[in-house]
Write a structure and sequence with these properties.
This is Phosphatidate cytidylyltransferase, mitochondrial. One of its GO terms (molecular function) is phosphatidate cytidylyltransferase activity. It is a peripheral membrane protein. By secondary structure, the chain is mainly alpha-helical. It has one domain. It has 13 helices and 6 strands. A 3-stranded mixed β-sheet has the order 1-3-2. The longest helix has 47 residues.
Length: 306
């Protein structure tokens, strides 16, 4: 099944224009303006799924002789996840190679090339993934180990891993997309002055306090906030407009020996919350029948693997 993410400047308009045959039965029965408003509210979470990924998924859609699924997301929410990692859902997907579908053939009105801020957000997201992966790795490691860390950032903590998803999914992704991953990340590594890449196979990095501090500063806001909450639980960071100085605390954290372990737990927590809420939400949007058809083969494969 091919998986698409549709980034919309106005996703409510998208829901109005798209065929309601794509939607599960409960949504199809009430094709009204009020339903569209509720559907859009449901996409952006409302109060039911505050930690979901702000996507509305339609699944098992026949298209040109095969099945597809697609998630609809507002541009604002798309960019927010790429730059701040509040959910690490869209951001995690774009750590991996993707095919950019820019414009539909013969109809310029059905699609448009991503604008510069979106491209910049995608590039920034991957650069921050590099920083996170390097913080999780020792002084010397292989390119393969690095790619495993990159791909695994958005899977460790995912509630689906081990039962609905193959526990070897990270290995398979790295093996299957090795060349594309190298094309994405080797140039980024070589542009880092604190990194030495030997023959595109082995990597040596500077793990001094200054470098760790620099990499921590480069992490997305919600990861930094999670680290501060982990080390200083009595000084909770709950909002952007906090009066507490995150940079000062990050500096102190950079001197700690257990940064990799704490960072790993913070990432797992972000991924765990968003994947749990989004999985439940996807079941609502897909409906009982489609959800069963989608998840049953995955469960069977999981049982057979065990």
């Amino acid at each position: 099944m091919v998986d698409f993410i549709l980034v919309c400047n106005n996703s409510m308009l998208f829901h109005q224009k798209i065929s309601f045959a794509h939607y599960s039965l409960p949504w199809r029965l009430l094709k009204t303006e009020r339903l569209i408003n509720n559907l859009y509210w449901f996409q952006r979470d409302g109060f039911l799924f505050p930690k979901g990924a702000k996507l509305f998924y339609n699944t098992l859609i026949p298209s040109r002789g095969r099945l597809i699924k697609y998630g609809v997301i507002d541009t604002e929410d798309f960019e927010a996840d790429l730059l701040d990692w509040p959910k690490l859902y869209i951001a995690g997907r774009l750590h991996k190679p993707v095919l950019n579908v820019l414009v539909w053939p013969n109809d310029q009105n059905l699609g448009q090339e991503p604008n510069r801020p979106i491209w910049q957000a995608i590039n920034d997201n991957r650069w921050m993934a590099v920083q996170a992966a390097l913080l999780l790795l020792p002084e010397k490691f292989s390119v393969k180990e690095f790619l495993h860390k990159i791909v695994g950032l958005s899977y460790k903590g995912d509630v689906r891993m081990g039962w609905a998803e193959d526990s070897r999914k990270i290995d398979k992704l790295v093996e299957g997309a090795n060349e594309q991953l190298r094309m994405l990340y080797i140039p980024l590594l070589k542009n880092d002055k604190q990194i030495l890449v030997e023959n595109d196979e082995m990597i040596e990095q500077d793990n001094s306090i200054q470098t760790v501090f620099h990499r921590l500063q480069m992490l997305p806001y919600f990861v930094q906030r999670g680290l501060c909450n982990s080390y200083y639980p009595s000084r909770r960071f709950r909002r952007y407009n906090t009066n507490l100085d995150i940079e000062e605390l990050i500096y102190h954290i950079s001197h700690r020996y257990d940064v990799p372990e704490r960072l790993d737990l913070v990432l797992q927590k972000i991924v765990g919350h968003s994947s749990k809420h989004q999985s439940i939400k996807n079941a609502f949007t897909a409906g009982i029948s489609r959800s069963f058809k989608y998840i049953w083969p995955k469960l069977i494969k999981g049982i057979l693997r065990k």
